[in-house]
Batch of 2 targets.
Target 1
Amino acid sequence: MPIHQSPVSRRQFLRCSAGIVGGLVISTRVQGAGPSDSTSFALLSDTHIPSSPDTVAHDVNMTSNLRQVVREVLAWQQQPAGVIVTGDCAYLKGLPEDYANFASTIQPVTASGLPLHLMTGNHDHRGAMVEALTVQSARNPLVQSRFVSILETPQANLFLLDSLTQTNVVTGELGDMQRNWLTQALQSRQDKPAVVVVHHNLQLTPPAEGKRITGLADSLAFLELLKSHRHVKAYIFGHTHNWSLKQMDGLHLINLPPVAYVFGEGRPNGWVQATFHPQGLTLTLKTIDAQHPLNGKSHEIHWS
Ligand SMILES: [Fe+2]
């Protein structure tokens, strides 16, 4: 499972389902005021927090960016059910000092009572993440050596997967065990739309000769799995540092922007407000640069 912090109350961790080998299944509810038929999350990705708050990369101070996002999340009137960080929490090598800075920068979120769900990316280190952050972990993981879990919300089930293979190596992979687990988990939860969340992107064509795979090494098998379950409506991921919304045969591909730096001039960095409703999802981009032309732009995602 990813790392989950739920400082308000352990009651939100409703059950560890014995039916799925002791893994963690988390039910969420909207806290405070807000539309009763919706659930909102703050979606963050690729924070790349370094050991020192002063470190700058690609002309961006990553710690400052995360501080800004934390302030904005806490000011969001919708009062989200949680904050999800889809990997690359640490700068490059998953150092304990990176996570110490991450923990202190994200601390206002947990102090405010918002559940925080941290996922792994290719620049993370599972052991160092667990060591540095207060953790509520399952004694028996759903998938050996991987952080996977399910967030049950009123409108959709979110399946958080783990695509980290080796720290600071760009390639991701889910692997047979995790894909088999996901198949079973999806089959046992067909009553609501399913949204699958992973750090890496799909890579459906082989890399150029001599180049590494930069996305999921098992993309084809994974996509086949997703398509074979019609209640899988969306795939949310980070990794590319390139905000985009696409569709593939009715499956929504939601590529989150980085909180940290972008790789293309003019591309937005920031975070995304996501509000689930019975027929889909509303996404609103919040950019670090308040003057960015895409700042505040909302998109309605309709389940097919
Ligand atoms: Fe990244």
Target 2
Amino acid sequence: VEFKIIDDFFKPYSSHRADVLLGIGDDCALVKPPRDQLLAISTDTLVEGVHFLHGTSAHSIGHKALAVSLSDLAAMGAEPAWVLLSLSLPHIDEDWLNQFRQGFFQLASEYNLPLIGGNTCQGSLSIATHIIGVVPPSKAITRSGAQPGDGIYITGYLGEAGLALLALQHKIPLSSAPLAQAQKRLDYPDPRIAVGLALRGIASAAIDISDGLAADLSHILEQSQVGASIPLANLPISPLMQSIPVEKAHELILSAGDDYELCFTVPAKLEPELKQVLKCPYHCIGVIDDIPGLRILDADAKPLSLQKKGYEHF
Ligand SMILES: [Mg+2]
């Protein structure tokens, strides 16, 4: 007897939206897109041993699988609308599925985001989410709109998720309280949806930081055909990151992924508006210029060579 995991295990817990005409249970879901809005569509896969450590709690995997997709919508200034889920599981473990589901729907319910479909198969543990959001046509924030003179900003603090990963792998010593704090960043990233919506009409370009600041900011620079020089001293170091040597902190801030903060650019004339709309901590780390490429400057304003730009997908 086939255990219909999505129908039986997930459907009863999904939230409902009037624009879902047909949800889980048929060959396709049927949804009614809002008039005059674009659909923003993204997919992400988390694989055990690649994107999360073996032994990570099912609850946090459920949260994170959705959070990484929401983060992509945040980076576009899109509002979450519907999500689909594909699970590859080594075997059916009801406890695991219950915890996964709770982590997933706890986050989904924050955005009244319905699960409208999915499928499962047997295989090594991996989770794919497919998310669809909506955004007015002129309001989508892409990676290609940065102009020389625009300020470069990041939300919150970077490097903490990377710090947790190193500590869990015993590559860096960390006592239990700071480890718990860092691990929360790694296991329960908080997608910056509210920031993305607030940045509509203000940010000229944006990206979510999943692979490290240097790598992700470089995507904006390349796609916008601009450049930037970022003094190391401009990178904000969180109280938690102050417990490790500053060189290590800088390395993690620049090259560790998984924080899911946003990096975005804002024309100088819109900076006062930015101050009014952003309710979270954020920092200006530099200014876009017209010399292609990213340069990280040391205390003597000399460019550093970046050994490892960020998380490499292949
Ligand atoms: Mg992204």
